[in-house]
Amino acid sequence: MSQRIFRSLPPVAAMLAVAAAALSAAGAADAKTLKWSSQGDIATFDPYAHTESFTSNMHHHVYDPLVRRSRSLEIEPALATKWSSVAPDRWRFELRRGVKFHNGNAFTADDVVASITRLLDPDARARGNLSNVAKAERVDDYTVDFVTKGPYPLLLNDLSGIFIMDKEWLEANNALKPGNLTTGATTYASTNANGTGPFKLVSYQPDSRTVLEVNTGWWDKPAHNLTRIEFRPIKSDATRVAALLSGEIDMIAPAPLQDLARIGATSGFKVIEEPSLRLIFLGLNWRPELVGQPGVKNPLLDLKVRQALWHAIDLDTIQRRVMRGKSRNVGTMVAPPVPGYSAGLDQPLAFDAAKAKALLTEAGYPSGFKVNLSCPNDRYINDEQTCVAVAGMWSRLGLQVDLKTESRATYFPKVDKGETDIYMLGWATLPPMDGYSVLSALMATRKGGFGGNNPNGLSDPAVDDLATKSAVELDETKRRAMLTESFRIAREKVYFLPLHQQPVAWATKSNVELPQFADEYVRLWFAKVD
């Protein structure tokens, strides 16, 4: 405001104008924007259209679940304040009062019922994340019952990953039916959001930029001091690091392993490293024929072939050269802290090229065979480099490996449709931080809510029986034994080719404070910028 305008104001008005300007300047000074980048983008803003953990991570800034993970990753109240099992097949939740969605709509039991109904829709990609729930029923405005298909010991764990949407907003925008990344179905909720979470979605430009602003009316007391979050996907490791070191962005997650030492040694920056729960493995085609080779019998159905492929992978070399010594070789499908883990099973088949060749010969493939290997190039730590290494090792057996790497945006829908012979996947057992998620989603036959991430026809009656029984087993010792038994079967029959437990490494400016978590989630509601 110019001095000429001040002179034209009455004295009191002039004083108020000066005060307002001072407050505005102070507010601008206090504003804390955190700009960060990862190697891939948010796949969708529809919480039920996907099962990709990075996308869920971003949703958690905008939406709230009924229960959530605390800073120590324990279950704690969120949109629900109390809960109890009122019958073997019924849980009752008391909802938090006074909560508002970002558009001002009141949060009630109707929103929970509409959300769970939408999630359990046959067309929802994420319906398997709550496979043992039959329906949600309204008791009153702030009480909801979850009707289950029997005893459900992991309900709270599963609900920690289920975000609640606004019924009125869904109705107004014709989005009561869910989207689905696999089928390509989209709705208004695919690119817009209206949650109750700590931040509001301002704009979502796929493959470019996503902007969030603080929700000043959030029901919880913020632990962060942010007013704005700007996220930008940068696929290139070198470009992402350069953006950090130039000051263009404040944080990168993950940070490339090859650049950790350089970043850590640069004044004004720091590296944060913790072990991850995420295991990287290769899944297999279980159909009679190979993909893209009509009439060609699928060699992967032969146990000796699968054993040969495992023996041919030099995990030590991958760990040392590709993962810079920061990964851990694995022989099972879950990490040590996860229920169902057994150290006795965590032993990969030893690298033995001669034995691998002999097994292939015994199986009738002395000269190898042609097979495709599909991998993402922007999802896991050094994913493309790992697959290049594996393809090279298999080629020494005589295999003709058709390696295809691509962005997560096109890769995961292809995997979901079963359009691969051998594919890379990572699993951090979230939800529910329990081995049951691996058993129910990856190993069980795809039917009846099971096998949501089992796209290529794997089916074993013994595994299915363990999945069904462990879902309702209330004795924790017995339940864990069932999980361990399923992983024993998977290892013995080589249903998957486990590779490694990947590291978690972030890099930030020195003025950014943020705890790191073993599930790899970036929880910016704990972030502070000095």
Q: Characteristics of this structure?
A:
530 residues; alpha+beta; D-Maltodextrin-Binding Protein, domain 2; Dipeptide-binding Protein, domain 3; 11-stranded mixed sheet; 16 helices; disordered N terminus
- Rounded to an integer in angstroms, the radius of gyration calculated over CA atoms is 25 Å
Describe the oligomeric state of these chains in a short phrase: single chain
Helix amount, in percent? 25-40%
Q: Please give the alpha-carbon distance between the first and last residues.
A: 30 Å
- Count of individual domains: 3
What is the gist of this entry?
This protein has 530 residues and is an alpha+beta fold. It is built from 16 helices and 19 strands. The radius of gyration is 25 Å and the shape is globular.
What report would you give on this structure?
With 530 residues, the chain is of the alpha+beta class. The protein has three domains: 3-30, no CATH class; 53-228, 3-Layer(aba) Sandwich (D-Maltodextrin-Binding Protein, domain 2), CATH 3.40.190; 276-504, Dipeptide-binding Protein, domain 3. The protein is 29% helix and 22% strand. The protein is built from 16 helices and 19 strands. The chain has helices spanning 3-7, 11-30, 53-59, 109-119, 155-159, 167-172, 237-245, 260-264, 303-311, 315-322, 353-362, 383-395, 408-416, 436-443, 461-472, 476-492; strands spanning 33-38, 67-69, 75-77, 80-87, 90-95, 133-140, 143-148, 199-205, 209-214, 228-233, 251-252, 269-284, 328-329, 370-376, 400-406, 422-427, 497-509, 512-513, 528-529. Strands 1, 8, 9, 10, 11, 12, 13, 14, 15, 16 and 17 form an eleven-stranded mixed beta sheet that branches. It has a four-stranded antiparallel beta sheet with strand order 4-5-7-6, with helices on one face. A two-stranded antiparallel ribbon has the order 2-3. Helix 14 packs across helix 15 and helix 15 packs antiparallel against helix 16. The longest helix has 20 residues, at 11-30. The radius of gyration is 25 Å and the shape is globular. The model is unreliable at 1-29 (pLDDT under 50).
